[in-house]
Amino acid sequence: MSSTTPWWRSAVIYQVYIRSFADGDGDGVGDIAGLRSRLPYLKALGVDALWINPWYKSPMADGGYDVADYRAIDPLFGTVADAEQLIEEAHRHGIRIIPDIVPNHTSDQHAWFQAALAAGPGSPERDRYIFRPGRGPEGAEPPNNWVSCFGGPAWTRLPGGDWYLHLYAPEQPDLNWQHPDVHAEFESILRFWFSRGVDGFRIDVAHGLAKDPELPDLASQPAPVDGQPQPYVQHPHWDRDEVHAIYRTWRKVADEFDGDRCFVAEAWADTPERLAAYVRPGGLHTAFNFDFLMASWDAKDLRAVIDDSLAMLSDVGAPATWVLSNHDVMRHTSRYARKTVARWVPNQRYQPQGTADLDLGTRRARAAALLMLALPGGAYIYQGDELGLPEVEDLPESVLQDPIWERSGHTDKGRDGCRVPLPWSGQTAPFGFSQADASAEPWLPQPANWSERSVEAQTGDETSMLELYRTALRLRRAHPALGDGTMTWLDAPADVLAFHREPGFTCVVNLSNEAYQLPEHSTISLASGPIRDGLLEPDHAVWLKV
Ligand code: NOJ
Question: Closest residue (by CA) to atom 2 of ligand 1?
């Protein structure tokens, strides 16, 4: 790869769910001070950048994805000065910073929404959001049948009679992206943070900003053809073509600044073609490849996802960005811990099948890490992936904070199980997440046996997940074949993924039930488990020098 290739084409980006990363002030919630104190850890891990979940001023109805002021840091996390210091220190460590930006909705406490409430029906203030009269007698029915992603209707009625749209919680009113103020405000927010040195943004719900102006009812899903689900021709609020004009403007804003600033879209699209549309020339730089995360632990499924993604992205000249876990989904150590790993159905919460065998899940997670880090493009690591943390599936109901729990009428425990604070050291909670003399316990309880999975416990243990990640990232950084580029599949049985990358690199992943004889090679650079007699055991992966 040439040294002029932009960094984001090959970057390994570590996701910091800031509430749960490290607590600097002892209130049981992670913060910027905690993150700053752990920069040396991240540097030694070998990541290129941090994506930081929303840190803005927020009433925290949805973990900070309800922003009240985009130019202020929430006091729970610190101040703008702390953020500036973090950016500077991270840069000194050679680590870039990518905050989240949340343009689809604000908090109901945002000054604009408060002004809209005060100004009343028909006012220009209300026009920045999506207010409508209801249907039916006295407008008592919502304006249409759209549903909130967190359950229940996507509309809430105000005492004055009008309804407002929220595709997420009622505390997250959707902005009206047909309003010029909304465009101008977000361009200004981007410049505010770019000029403070951030290297890019992760765009929340990037596929949701444009709505059909008629706000029609959601039609039922088109009938499957040959058993294949068919995409909506034009969904009234997801992945509409109009969103791309917004991002072409954002791209120009990013290009005003020096130093390769970049965007990554959280865009859920029905097909790889539609995803690729976000990263066409002049649009965004990258988009998460959720198809990889949704695939089952199955060679055919994974291979199809890899082929389709690479083909579509290379048509538009964009790199892939592989991802296995994030703060919204069941941690992959637990997903893979089921004998049969269910394929994720888009737009539905994941339903694991059967009981978890965490040894199995860990073996597969190790193999998946080597697969992901060997594929062409960039990769995301969700904090704790490198420790092999499982989903905490047995959080007591009394501690749950995700709005999904309430909005689902207590039928869905939501996403807290993947958001439990990290274990750093020691034998008892808070495992170094907060200092020993902290005034409060971690905001979610950590399992007692996480002492075994702490950074301290794994450091220096060559068989640990942490050392596997450290070695893989070190090799990846040094190896000219890895990161951006191309790959070629090698002949292998249907349940084995084997591919070659120039110069001199081969990755083999065994998803079959039998040991697999490795192809000819000069050395084993890295393996997810012991290799005897050149045999790769089931659910293992290896990097070979050839
Ligand atoms: C996607 C974010 O990742 C998720 O955590 C959040 O709840 C929704 N967008 C709404 O902002």
Answer: 204
